[in-house]
Each structure stands twice: as structure tokens, then as C-alpha cells.
Design brief:
Elements (H helix, E strand, L loop, with lengths): L2 E7 L7 H12 L4 E5 L18 H11 L3 E7 L7 H10 L13 E6 L7 H13 L10 E3 L15 H22 L1
Parallel strand pairs: 1-2, 1-3, 3-4, 4-5
Helix pairs in contact: 1-5
This protein binds ligand FNR.
Ligand FNR binds next to helix 1.
GO molecular function, one term: FMN binding
InterPro entries: Flavoprotein-like_sf, FMN_Rdtase-like_dom, NAD(P)H-dep_reductase
Organism: Paracoccus aminophilus JCM 7686
Length: 183
């Protein structure tokens, strides 16, 4: 069975390495996963007053996540935590109370950074919110991608075979696990 996976990227800039990484991951993924990118850069900051007249971008995000069966997060680390764009998307999708669009969806968290720590802080802060949102998260292999500013060629392909193998392994594990969870 083909499973619909929403992809959220935690960087909004055009040349984002996280976005390149997300595309590379979708290309290396097994065939049972079908991906669609969900944009989060246009979401007004969460403000409960706006629920009276829901912003179009919020409605779109909620609809797109509702239509997905699983969610893949690919994010850089901002100040040892998760970028505000991702946190805001989680907040927007979690409300109104009792109508969270995230509930129960199996997630993959991939973090990346130019440095050596691979976005560990972002990865685990994101996991903290996903516990409360009742999203099971793939535990192994963990995906902290260091040095991601040097990973891609001009076509956005992963240059290094070892890294390509590792990314494939992550996606295979996610595909198998999603199939098991969703049945
Ligand atoms: C960063 N960067 C960064 N890197 C890191 O390893 N740990 C960190 O805590 C931070 N903090 C941070 C804060 C802010 C506001 C910015 C803009 C950047 C550097 C970051 O990893 C680098 O800019 C990446 O290239 C961002 O990912 P994208 O935009 O290429 O996907």
C-alpha cells in the first residue's frame, strides 16, 4: 500500500540545505512512501483570537496534514533548538483543542547542520513536542546529518556514497516502520 507522507522543512530560505536534504531523502525512499511538501513559511504566528476567522494559510496546513498519513520533518538547528517555523506549524495544526491534525501520525525527524553536531538539539526539542502531540517517532537509526553544506552536487545529489547509503537506510527503516504501524 502506498502511504501519504507530508514533508515539512524547517528552513524558509531558497538555498536551504535542509530542503536539498529533504529532496534527497524522498528520492532514496522505498516505493511504499508517497511524499508531498507542505509549506509553512506563510502561516501567521499562532494566536488563539484568529480562530474566530481562521487565516487561509492555517486552513490549508490543517487540510494538507489531515490528508497525510505520516509526517517527515527535515530541519536545521536554530540556537540549539527547533526553528520557530516548525514550532509554529505544530502549534497551528494542534488546535482547536481536541482537533489536532497531528494525532497518531508516525513521524520521522531528520536534523542537519553545517557543523558536526548535526542539529541534535533541534532534533530532540522537536521530539519533545511530538510526544505531547501523540506522534510516534522512528527511534533508529537516528538522523543527525552533520556538514550538510558540503553534501550536495550542483544537481542536489548527495556526493558521498557512504552518506547516500546512510540516508537510504533511514528511509528504508521509516518505510518499513510506517507500513507496520499503519498496517
Ligand atoms: C543557525 N545555525 C546553527 N547551526 C547549528 O549547528 N546550531 C545552531 O544552534 C545554529 N543556530 C542558528 C541560528 C540561526 C537563527 C541561524 C540562521 C542559523 C546555522 C545553520 O545550521 C545554517 O545556517 C544552516 O545552513 C541552516 O539550514 P538551511 O537554511 O541551509 O536549511
Amino acid at each position: 500500500t502506498e502511504r501519504k507522507v507530508a514533508v515539512l522543512v524547517g528552513s524558509l530560505r531558497k538555498g536551504s540545505f535542509s530542503r536539498k536534504l529533504a529532496h534527497a531523502l524522498t528520492e532514496l525512499a522505498p516505493k511504499n512512501l508517497h511524499f508531498s511538501f507542505v509549506e509553512i513559511g506563510d502561516l501567521p504566528l499562532y494566536n488563539e483570537d484568529l480562530e474566530a476567522d481562521v487565516p487561509a494559510a492555517w486552513a490549508r496546513l490543517r487540510r494538507e496534514i489531515k490528508g497525510a498519513e505520516a509526517v517527515m520533518f527535515v530541519t536545521p538547528e536554530y540556537n540549539r533548538s527547533v526553528p520557530a517555523s516548525i514550532k509554529n506549524a505544530l502549534d497551528v495544526g494542534s488546535r482547536p483543542y481536541g482537533q489536532s491534525v497531528w494525532d497518531g501520525k508516525p513521524a520521522l525527524v531528520v536534523s542537519g547542520s553545517g557543523g558536526g553536531i548535526g542539529g541534535f538539539g533541534a532534533n530532540h526539542h522537536l521530539r519533545q513536542s511530538l510526544v505531547f502531540l501523540n506522534m510516534p517517532v522512528l527511534q533508529q537509526p537516528e538522523a543527525y546529518i552533520g556538514g550538510f553544506n558540503d553534501l550536495f552536487d550542483d544537481q542536489g545529489k548527495v556526493k558521498n556514497e557512504g552518506t547516500q547509503g546512510f540516508l537510504s537506510k533511514i528511509m528504508q527503516a521509516y518505510g518499513d516502520w510506517v507500513a507496520k504501524i499503519l498496517g
